[in-house]
Amino acid sequence: MESYATEAPEIASDPAKLEKDSGFRSLEAESATQDRVDRHVVDFDGPDDPENPLNWSNTRKWCLVGLISAMTLVTNLATLMCAPAAPLILREFSSNNQLYQTLLVSIWELGEAFGPLFIAPLSEIYGRAPVYNAVNILFCIFSIAGAVSTNMHMFIAFRFLNGITVGAIVLNPSIVGDLFVTERRGNAMAIEGIAPLIGPVLGPVIGGYVSQAIGWRWLFWLAAIFAGITEIGFLAFFRETYKVRILERKAARLRKVTGDDSYKSVHHVTHTIMGFLTVSVMRPARMLLLSPVIFLLGLYVALVYAYTYVLLTTMTEVFEQRYGFSTGSASLTFLGLGIGLTAGLLLCQATLDRYVSRVQTRGGAMKPEQRLPPMIAGGLVIPAALLWYGWTVQTRAPWPAPVVATATLGFAVAATLLPAFSYLVDAFGLHSASALAVTISLRCVAGAAFPLVAPCLYDRLGVGWGTSVLAVVALVFVPVPLLLMWFGERVRLRSRLLVTY
């Protein structure tokens, strides 16, 4: 009896020995193991950890927003700067194939459709910074290659590669999501959205005058120069914003300092070649197939973007042939679209966060669907603006009439696209880059295909009836934001995507 009394405390004080002797795990053993696991799971040190990008100073955050916006502006200017210079390019390469005139722009969009499918998952594995720097450098290289091209096929090939290396369109909204809390994200998203909306408008204006003054090759030299200057800013000031990668680095530092290899990030994943292929190829595809929300919203965004590109690729010809404008003067008509885009952006800036704040003030929970109300206004205006533009051109109304119509369309486009991207960032969190990649790929495919079809449509039906067809299709999509506001949350929560990720 005495011997048992002296050994019992020893057994009780050693949970591992008790587990070994008795054949089952004691509560003490489980607790000790769990404590050890918890201590080695690396996360931020509380809600105020300065390593968390959400806690960075506003000055630092807005400097990064300015930096990524600058790169977006450069890449979007380069997209359409060659549109008014297309006749000069065809003449130099001794080609009279009019298909090339459209392909010079649409092939870039086709490249942008493929690039995000790899850029987004790579950024979710290796972080935003290394991926962004890599694609920026490649963009500079391919811009220079386009400037020194010696034949049409070489030039088109490098335009395609240039499109693939545009990382800003998919990474920028995700970076804004990394930096700002939900109730302040809408304003930042609207400001970051200025460049991708204004760039395609200013591009033809700059391209028209620069190509006439110093030659079309300088368009691509200038793109490479300004992209290179911006990339120097990235190398000097941009720091990782993706919290998964930040915590992976923190865990690596702890393993090095302590010599204990059991430290793992709370978001730890194992990277194998097959795992990367699965993530890079399958995640965006599965998101498209398993999430009705992404599929429906992606189709709507693709349609709106495609209509914008139809205008951008046909306006120069319309104003030159129907109104007798010169190349430079015709390029100035794009400013109407730019003014409208700016007005729509200001609407989003004023409203995107207001709905969220109003709900929180009333004690409600924030939902991604609260980003969508501006899309309702945009959806209603798009068909009307298309009809306005088409029939004022068809009837040869004074040139300010179609220009004002394009401004109205620009307003509607901004009011549609910016809330859509804000919604995806809020709804899909850590995997927002992949969700955006799916949407952007659909958008770019449509942006590449529709301008190829539009000339045939206009030739057969005329600008008036051809644009009316586009307006009727746009009218079918008007209920989309309402459906997402009413049923979006329910569909997201029931989606098989939740099981997969």
Automatic annotation (TrEMBL):
The chain crosses the membrane at residues 62-86, 98-119, 131-150, 156-181, 193-212, 218-238, 288-312, 332-352, 372-391, 403-425, 432-453, 465-487. PROSITE patterns: MFS (PS50850). The keyword Transmembrane applies. Residues 64-492 form the Major facilitator superfamily (MFS) profile domain. The keyword Iron-sulfur does not apply. GO terms for molecular function: transmembrane transporter activity. Signal peptide: none annotated. Residues 1-34 are annotated as: Disordered. GO terms for cellular component: membrane. It is found in: Membrane. It comes from the Eukaryota. InterPro entries: MFS (IPR011701), MFS_dom (IPR020846), MFS_trans_sf (IPR036259). It is a multi-pass membrane protein. Belongs to the major facilitator superfamily. This is Major facilitator superfamily (MFS) profile domain-containing protein. The lineage of its organism: Eukaryota, Fungi, Dikarya, Ascomycota, Pezizomycotina.
